[in-house]
């Protein structure tokens, strides 16, 4: 699959939070095909909440989001339940686009196989997910989103609980998949040192409550990332 549209999502004046309390100032941003964007900020700053709002799970307080299709969201800490092969897990994740009897179209079944192949996990298709490594399972979760032919995939802390090698592997997978297919990824993470060099741009919810978007250069990404810290001497190198 190769995404043809360049413009995936546009947000204007967006705030999220609770009645009478926005978690950050009104945000304006766009996401384009093939981008892999890091969303960073302190705990409680609104990272998960804005992802849920984009996915249509939570309402906006203010503003408007223009998007061609509701994107899938991969939450943090999906349990690896016994009794599901990787293939059946990915097919089950596609239930929302099945027919009235719960059957997937031949196109969706083919897309699931293609997604596993493209992420290098086709050889694990018949393995029980309970026996997969955390990194392998996270790639399976990404494959479940790609199988739905979504133009945008949202991930909440995809590198949480992973060891150093698997963190790099998953982040590299996001970047490579975005470049190859045109699918855009927006992911939250506290693993900024690993994620910053591998992402296209950075969205940061600053310590001052301002939502900022960086350019693509490492200098611009650094400048944006630093707004979430009180210590401004931290540098992330390309």
Please provide a written account of the structure.
30% of the residues lie in helices and 21% in strands. It is an alpha/beta fold and 238 residues long. It folds into two domains: 1-71 and 152-238, P-loop containing nucleotide triphosphate hydrolases (Rossmann fold), CATH 3.40.50; 79-149, no CATH class. The strands form three sheets. The chain has a six-stranded mixed β-sheet with strand order 7-8-9-5-10-11, with helices on both faces. A three-stranded antiparallel β-sheet has the order 4-1-6, with no helix packed on it. A two-stranded antiparallel sheet has the order 2-3. The chain is globular, with a radius of gyration of 18 Å. The model has no long low-confidence stretch (mean pLDDT 89).
Tell me the total number of β-strands.
11
* CATH-defined architecture of the largest domain: 3-Layer(aba) Sandwich
The CATH superfamily of the largest domain is P-loop containing nucleotide triphosphate hydrolases
Helix amount = 25-40%
Give the ordered list of helices and strands. Answer: EEEEEHEEHHHEHEHEEH
Rg measurement, Å: 18 Å
Biggest sheet descriptor:
6 strands, mixed
Total tally of structural domains: 2
Pfam families: ABC_tran
Domain ABC transporter: 3-233
Organism: Candidatus Cryptobacteroides intestinigallinarum
Keywords: ATP-binding, Nucleotide-binding, Transport
